[in-house]
Amino acid sequence: MKYALLGDLHSSVEDTKAVLQQIKCCASDAQIIGLGDLYECHVGKRKAKITRDISIKRAAHMPKKFAPLLTFPSVRGNQEERIMLVTGRNDFAHLPEKLLIDGAVVIHGHQWKWTKGWLPVLPKTDPPLVFFGHSHIAGLYRKGRPLPFSYGEPILLKKKRYGINAGAVSGAREWVLYDSSARTVTFMKA
Ligand SMILES: [Mn+2]
To answer: How many angstroms is it from 62 CA to the middle of ligand 1?
Structure first.
């Protein structure tokens, strides 16, 4: 089974379109899965603590052409959670915190700790392969350390436990192709 994983879209119409176009041409047989932070929240982390019941328009960047692009399942990111917090609405409550795909777990990275240098302190998931977003830094992690990768070149996963940050759609047009039968991941950039 092939999966195209993309996250941190932050309401970017043009970047999302570019990534979806590349998936359509290079991996048309892949199931698309979202890693969260689909939308951009206008309210910062600190201000969100005291902001309540504001309109969705004030809380989030929601360009009309964006929602129709979201035709795939996704987990919930911190942006979606913050939008719900400051509006008191439940627009994203249906998005799960975690998704299981063939041989891997999909979670947004705000659910665990990060080091000061933005290295993920990954949870021990089952299955041990975890795909995530959050820091907007694409990376393949093994035992807490990043391993080298080149865009467009498939990497064979030799061990069981890895963390894969697909990077960001917004501003970087990054995504990851995962082939669960071949056990390969390919970092992509549109
Ligand atoms: Mn995030």
So the answer is: 17
Backbone angles phi, psi at 15, to 5 degrees: -65, -40
The residues, any chain, with a CB within 8 Å of residue 152's CB and separated by 6 or more, are: 186, 187, 188, 189
CA 66 to ligand 1 center in whole angstroms: 18
Residue 159 has pLDDT above 90, yes or no: no
CA 155 to centroid of ligand 1, rounded, Å? 25
State whether CATH 3.60.21.10 applies to domain 2-189.
yes
Over residues 112-133, mean pLDDT = 96
Domain boundaries, the chain: 2-189
3-state secondary structure 104-150: EEEECHHHCCECCCCCECCCCCCCCEEEECCCCCCEEEECCEEECCC
Protein residues near ligand 1, an ion, with CB under 5 A: 37, 77-78, 134
Global pTM value: 0.97
